[in-house]
Amino acid sequence: MLYLRVWHMLARSAAAFQWLQLARPAMFSAHGHFSAIACPDGDRACKRAPCPFSHAAGASRTMFVVAHDAEPASSSSTIPAKRPAAPSPVSSSSSARHEPPRKLQRVEANTASPQRVVPAPAPSTPSTSTPSAPTLRVNAAQSKVPVILRQTMLQTLFDHFLALYQPIISKQPDLAASHALQQEAEIHERTNKITYRNAVKTCLIGLKKRPPPDSVSHISVGTDGQIAERKRAEDAVASLVLTRAMLEPLLLSEASMLELGYMLDIPADWGPGGEAPSADGAEMECDRCKERYVVRPLDQADERACKFHWGRLIGTRVAGERQRMHTCCAEIAPGNPCDIGPHVFYEKEPALLHARHAFSLTEPDETGTALDIAALDCEMVYSTGGMRIARVSVVDSAGNMVFDQLVRMDAGVSVIDFNTRFSGVTSLDEAVLDLDGTRAALKSYISSSTILIGHALDNDLKTLRMVHTRCIDTVALFPHKAGWPYRRALRDLARECLNRTIQNAGAAGHSSVEDSVAALDLVKFYIVEKRRP
After folding, report:
1. Could you tell me which residues belong to the region Disordered (predicted)?
2. Does residue 405 surpass a pLDDT of 70?
C-alpha cells in the first residue's frame, strides 16, 4: 500500500508539471507584462523557453527595491523582480535583528543620481488630557494568573477608578492609574488562578458603591487594602487609652524645650511684670507688611493701611525653576498683596511678653481635680498689647472637652484685629474671664504634674503666660523634613496620619477644641505606629 501511495503522488506531480509547462506560454503570452523588461540572465545564460522577458537590444531595466526607513536605497541594492531580496550587509555595531520591510517603491536603475526613498510618515497620536491606562509589568513565570487576563482586569479597574475620581482627577491626574495598579497587585497577592476573576468583580462592585470624593483625603480614595488599613488605624487610635507610662518617654527634654522656644523659668531681674500692658502710642513694625507705624486703638487706626498676604509661603516649581508661592492667592512671591487691614504687631521675646502680662509657673494639684493628661489649644487676636489670647480649650485624655472659654482683654488693651480667618473669633462681648481669671480656672485641670499635649505648644503657653515643663509637642514627634525652625502644619498632619480634615471652615476660622483633639489623636497615632511590628 505504501508503494501505491508514493506512485500516485509522483504521478500527480508529473502531470501537474506537464500541465504547467504547456500552460506557461499561454499565461505569459496573453498579457506580456514583462515584455518591456530586459532579461536579467542575458541572451546566452537564459534557459527559459519561452522567456517572458525581452531579449531585444536597448530594453529598459525597471526593477523593484525594498525601501527601509533607516537609510535610502541605492543602485547597488536594487534587485530584479521575481527574485528574493538578499539581506543587506550589517555593520559590526548594528544588531543582527532586521526590521521587516515597510513598503515597495519603484526606482529606475539607469538614473545617474542616487535614488532617494522617502519613508512613509508614522501615524500621529492625537494629544489628549485624559489619563492613560497603566501597563502591567510583571514576570509571566512568576504570575499565578495569565498576564493577558491580568492586563484586561487592570484596564477595567483603571476605568472604574477614573470614573470614581472624576471630581479630583484634575488635581491628581495619576491617582487612578496608581491605585489601579496597586489594587490589581493586592487582588493577585491574595487569590489564585481560580478565584482571581471573581475577586476583581467583587472589587468593581465595591468601587461603584463608593461615594464620590471631594478631596484626596476622602474615605473613598485608595485601594481596598489602603482603606482597610486606615480603618484599622482609626479604630486603634480611638480605642487606645493613654496612661502616664505610655507618655513619659515622649516628654520633651530640657534641651529640646529650649530649642523649640519654651520657657523653663522666670528670671528674677524681669521684675513683677505687667507694667506695660498696652503699646498705645509706641512705634512698632507691622507683623504683616513690615512697615513702621504708631500703635493706635481700632477706632483711631486706619483699617486699610496694611496691604499683605495672609497665607503661608510654600515651595513650588514654575517653568522648572524653584519658586515660593503664597497659599492665599497662589501668587509667586513677592506678588501683589491680596488683603488689606490695620497694621498689627507681634512680640516674641519673653521679656517683652512678661512686661505686657506677667508669667507664672504651674502649681501642684491642691484640689485633687487636676488631670493626669490634657490637650490644650488657644486662639489669638491682635491687640494694642500685641498678640493676645482670646479663646482657650482643654480636652482630657479621652478627647472630651472639659474647658472652653473666651478671654477678655486686660484693662487698657483693646482688640485691633480679631484675625477671624485663623482664630474663629468675631467678638469678645460674651467673654467673662480675663487672663488672670482664666489661668485661675485652669488650675482645676492643669497642675505642675499634668502631661500637657499640643501642637506648637510653646506659643500657647507664652500667650497664656504659663511656664510648664511636662509637655509633649506634635511638632517634635512629626518634625519637618527641612528641620528646625520649619514646622509641619497641624491640618497636614491630621490629613496624613488621621485621614481627617480640620481647619476647613475657610473665613470662619479654626476651632481650638478641634485642634486640641487632633493633637491628642496624633500622639495616640504615634504610639500605635510605634507598637506595630
Report:
1. 74-137
2. yes
User: Global pTM?
Assistant: 0.69
| Residue whose C-alpha is closest to residue 246's, from 445, 524, 476, 533 | 524
**In the block, which residue shows the cell 528574493?**
84
CA gyration radius for the chain?
Answer: 41
Q: Are 367 and 309 in contact (CB under 8 A)?
A: no
DSSP secondary structure letters along 372-433:
SEEEEEEEEEEETTEEEEEEEEEEETTS-EEEEEEBPPPTT--EEE--HHHH-----TT--B
Which string of DSSP letters, residue by residue, matches 44-112?
A: HH---SS-SSB-STT-B-EEEEEE-SSS---GGG-B-TTSPPPPPP--TTS-S--PPP-EEEEEETT-S
d(CA 118, CA 522): 67
CA distances from 198 to 46, 147, 202, 248, 343 (A): 70, 16, 6, 50, 65
Q: Domain boundaries in the chain? A: 2-83+103-108, 140-238, 244-269+360-531
Kindly state the cell numbers that stand for 260.
523649640
Q: How many CB atoms lie within 10 A of CB 221?
A: 22
> In Å, what is the CA distance from 92 to each residue of 72, 85, 89, 95?
20, 21, 10, 8
- pLDDT level of residue 58 (50, 70, 90 thresholds): low
- Cell readout for 442 is 485652669
Fold of 244-269+360-531: Nucleotidyltransferase; domain 5 (3.30.420)
DSSP state of 143: -
Closest CA to 308 of 323, 293, 286, 292: 286
